[in-house]
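REQUEST FORM: STRUCTURE PREDICTION
Request ID: SP-0412
Submitted by: Lab K.M.
Chain count: 1
Length (residues): 82
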Amino acid sequence: MVFLAITTAGLSDALRLRRDAAVAVWCGSDAISEADYAALNVANVSRFNYPLQAEDDDVIAGAIETIEEHYPSETVWVERCA
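STATUS: Completed
RESULT:
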């Protein structure tokens, strides 16, 4: 299983909800700053170098495609923002 967090709150939720560090968490550049990401002392978290929040479906689809390349047999859970 892989979580794709779109917002800062979603990233916090994904990190809290995952059972162990084997569960990957990915997020956009707007979910966590570069400095905070560098200081993050949590395993198996990846940060795209572009934002995902308020982006169109094509950007999210591209992010999911990238995750699927790294985790081809895993389910990807995507945060949906209302």
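NOTES: The beta strands are 2-5, 24-27, 45-47, 76-78.
Reviewed by: T.R.
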